[in-house]
């Protein structure tokens, strides 16, 4: 091995900096080891821990390595990444991204990897791991399959005092107003917690959250915000704390954009929210979309512009974004493809507009059967989970594979049944019957053909 190879797999904390110095001095980035014919890129992908491999790969990519070079086993770095299950890394090594795009993708991918681990660490009340995962770049706002984040479990499940865990999460970028599947923020959950009231920590926790930007105006599914929750429990000390900033909170909520928090689009939509959305006046809806469109700066890179257009904008914004060939519809963001994100978007978008966007993405080559990295859910699974009839309709029209199973071995129909979504269940069941009938007819016609 040459020194560059030794440094790359040494595990040193300053390996990236040393590697950069060596490459700047003219060492060949494509130089191979004598035995296995590995380049430095091969070695990094094959031997380094996932949390170290991305920064090293990104630094090597800056010096233009030949991504097609194969080692003695005839494998490219891309092949090795696929073999190890580093699918996000493989997306960087297939040559489709610039260094800047790869860096942005790295931040998102590593955030997903350690965001999942962070939630588990909070559930297991492991403070050491909580500290480590926030340092590794965990996405502190990530929601799990139940629609809950680390900041929610810090209140409801973690045995460590929230006075210790909340600062760690908030310093790591957690949104103090992140809402769970029930619409609750950490502030709401804290007020609902009898344990925190009984042990006397509640006033300090409420004050901590308020100081870090928590609003008292977010309502749960029962229509109660933090102020109402405190009043119903006669928590006069908490009411006094909330009153100090109540006017300011109301004004902030009124001034907010349709996206209540930066992760609202990832929350599951309730049937009630969907019905309310359908009853909105077209004029008001149109105005909202104009405002959303104006909020997306065209100066961002093509990929980010496409993502933001799908998450915040109109079908026209998406069509505009798809006009740039550098905008890719098959990349993953936070473990989901762009098709998953449009299904989970929850900002008052109309059914018609959502269908237009889905059709545009499909026409641009988006995979309608793509599965989430963690739970293997397709867009059809997600649409079934939130009773999103408009999306189920257009996905089935475009031949989405309705029999695919997720990690729990559930088909979209099973997901709809489990969540008691009758509309979705009926639509999927009817489609399955029609497909079965069509296959029987095709088989019958094929069997009855005679050769003259």
Automatic annotation (TrEMBL):
Keywords of the record: ANK repeat, Repeat
Region described as Disordered: spans on this chain: 247-298, 431-452
Family matches, as Pfam families: Ank_2
InterPro entries reported for this sequence: Ankyrin_rpt, Ankyrin_rpt-contain_sf
The keyword Repeat belongs to this UniProt entry's keyword annotation: yes
UniProt ANK repeat ranges: 1-34, 146-181, 182-221, 375-407
Protein name per Swiss-Prot or TrEMBL: Uncharacterized protein
Originating species: Potamilus streckersoni
């Amino acid at each position: 091995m040459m020194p560059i190879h030794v440094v790359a797999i040494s595990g040193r904390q300053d390996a990236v900096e040393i590697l950069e110095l060596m490459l700047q001095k003219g060492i060949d980035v494509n130089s191979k080891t004598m035995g296995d014919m590995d380049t430095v890129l091969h070695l990094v992908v094959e031997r380094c821990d996932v949390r170290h491999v991305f920064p090293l790969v990104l630094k090597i990519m800056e010096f233009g390595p030949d991504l097609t070079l194969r080692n003695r086993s005839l494998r490219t770095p891309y092949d090795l990444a696929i073999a190890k299950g580093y699918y996000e890394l493989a997306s960087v090594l297939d040559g489709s991204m610039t260094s800047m795009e790869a860096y942005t993708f790295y931040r998102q991918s590593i955030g997903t990897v350690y965001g999942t681990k962070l939630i588990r660490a909070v559930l297991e009340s492991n403070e050491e791991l909580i500290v480590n995962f926030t340092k590794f770049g965990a996405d502190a706002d990530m929601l799990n399959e139940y629609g809950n984040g680390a900041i929610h479990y810090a209140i409801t499940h973690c045995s460590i005092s929230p006075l210790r865990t909340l600062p760690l999460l908030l310093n790591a970028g957690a949104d103090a107003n992140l809402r769970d599947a029930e619409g609750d923020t950490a502030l709401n959950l804290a007020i609902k917690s009898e344990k925190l009231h009984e042990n006397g920590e509640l006033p300090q926790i409420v004050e901590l959250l308020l100081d870090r930007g928590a609003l008292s105006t977010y309502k749960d599914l029962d229509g109660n915000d933090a102020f109402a929750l405190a009043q119903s429990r006669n928590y006069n000390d908490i009411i006094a704390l909330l009153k100090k900033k109540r006017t300011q909170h109301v004004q902030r909520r009124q001034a907010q954009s349709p996206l209540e928090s930066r992760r609202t689009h990832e929350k599951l939509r309730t049937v009630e929210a969907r019905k309310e959305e359908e009853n909105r006046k077209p004029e008001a809806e149109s105005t909202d979309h104009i405002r959303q469109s104006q909020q997306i700066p065209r100066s961002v890179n093509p990929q980010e512009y496409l993502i933001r257009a799908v998450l915040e904008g109109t079908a026209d914004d998406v069509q505009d974004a798809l006009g740039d060939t550098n905008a890719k519809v098959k990349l993953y963001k936070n473990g989901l493809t762009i098709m998953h994100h449009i299904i989970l978007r929850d900002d008052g978008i109309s059914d018609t507009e959502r269908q237009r966007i889905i059709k545009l993405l499909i026409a641009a080559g988006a995979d309608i059967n793509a599965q989430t990295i963690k739970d293997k859910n397709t867009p059809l699974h997600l649409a079934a989970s939130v009773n999103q009839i408009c999306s189920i309709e257009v996905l089935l029209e475009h031949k989405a594979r309705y029999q695919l199973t997720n990690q729990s071995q559930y088909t979209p129909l099973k997901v709809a049944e489990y969540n008691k979504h009758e509309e979705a269940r009926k639509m999927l069941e009817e489609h399955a019957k029609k497909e079965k009938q069509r296959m029987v007819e095709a088989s019958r016609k094929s069997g009855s053909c005679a050769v003259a």
